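Per reviewer request, we include the raw input and output of the structure prediction for the construct analysed in the revised manuscript.
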Amino acid sequence: MPELPEVETVRQGLLPHLLQQKITDIIIRHPHLRFPIPTQLKAQVRGQKVLNISRRGKYLIFTLPKGNLIWHLGMSGSMRVLLKPLPARKHDHVDLIFSNQTCLRFNDPRRFGALLWTEQDPLLHPLLIKLGPEPLSKEFSTQYLWEKSRNKKVAIKTFLMNSQIVVGVGNIYAAEALFKARIHPATPAQKLSPAQCNHLCRAIKIILRQAIKRGGTTLKDFVKSDGKPGYFKQELQVYGRAGLACYVCNNKLKQLRQAQRATVYCPQCQ
């Protein structure tokens, strides 16, 4: 699933192509995604300009004069900016056509993504209103992490992946941050000391900033036909490396299952 750095990379890639551009048409080939695409969406967005593209957690928000498009990439979704017409492929479900002849094409093989419309404040939408703070914001602090983790018996990695605690820290970056902070992923959240909360908070911010920066270096590829900006090319310390040597201590990395997800860690360093 695309995580926060990937969604932020997509947002940054869309801005130079779509900002202040007028939507002239929307083509909906398959309206049945995670939620049905609103039947009146074409009439609601046609003729409106994209005033801004922002992000909340893993959601992209297209601000228009009369409302907001809310996108979620789901498990397998991707967006491509097409500068010239190309035939639609099997899982190309939605096209947004703009006055500068640019096309934003949404592809989603598993159809777990979403495209929604609201004329209200998008942050008050039922899918967004209960989300926790952004991990790169001042609100996500050592003190916040310490207070939220008190009396929580759940494993710290599972705790971090709860979007009501903090948004956008998915499986990959939770594992990487815990390794950087030298905390075992199965440690109960309530067992973390203030010092560990401080190390973990800092590690999350560092890991996410690095991932966003490395994603940004591949934005030149954003308009290519595959739509994949290569955001997994960064060197990951533990994710996907079970059985290999730890880069720090050279011991073999181990794997365990947490909330139906694989977690790789170093038994020596963590």
